[in-house]
Design a protein that fits this description.
The chain is an alpha/beta fold and about 110 residues long. It is about 20% helix and about 20% strand. The strands form 3 sheets. A 3-stranded parallel β-sheet has the order 1-3-5, with no helix packed on it. The longest helix is centred in the C-terminal third of the chain and has 11 residues. This is Pentapeptide repeat-containing protein. InterPro entries: 5peptide_repeat.
Length: about 110
C-alpha cells in the first residue's frame, strides 16, 4: 500500500485504538501497569477486577459489566458516565448512585 493510500485510510478512520476487545471476560482479574490508552472495550466483563497503575486515558467502555470494579488513585478528570446503572456507585466514600437517584426523582437535575 502506498503512503497516499495509507494516509487516505487514516483520514477515513481517524480512531486508532491501542486495542479493540469485544466480549472480553476478565472477571476477578488484576491489571497492573498496562497501557489501555485509547482502547475500545465492547461488552466486556470486568466484574470484581482491579486496575493498578494502568493507563485508560481515552478508553471507551461500551456495554458490559463493571460491577464491583475497584479504581484507586486514578485521574478521572473529564471521565463521562452515560446511560449506566449507578446504584451503589461510590466515589471517595460518597454514594453518588444514591445522590443521582435522589436528584433525578426530585427533578433537581437532568441526570
Amino acid at each position: 500500500m502506498s503512503a497516499s493510500e495509507t494516509e487516505s485510510k487514516s483520514e477515513e478512520n481517524p480512531l486508532r485504538p491501542n486495542m479493540f476487545a469485544k466480549d472480553m471476560d476478565a472477571v476477578s482479574s488484576t491489571f497492573d501497569n498496562i497501557d489501555f490508552g485509547h482502547s475500545i472495550f465492547r461488552t466486556p466483563l470486568f466484574r470484581s477486577t482491579l486496575f493498578l497503575n494502568s493507563n485508560l486515558s481515552g478508553a471507551a467502555f461500551q456495554g458490559g459489566n463493571l460491577e464491583g470494579v475497584n479504581i484507586q488513585r486514578c485521574n478521572l478528570r473529564g471521565a463521562q458516565i452515560q446511560n449506566c446503572e449507578v446504584e451503589g456507585l461510590v466515589v471517595n466514600g460518597v454514594n453518588v448512585g444514591d445522590l443521582i437517584q435522589l436528584l433525578t426523582r426530585t427533578g433537581t437535575s437532568s441526570v
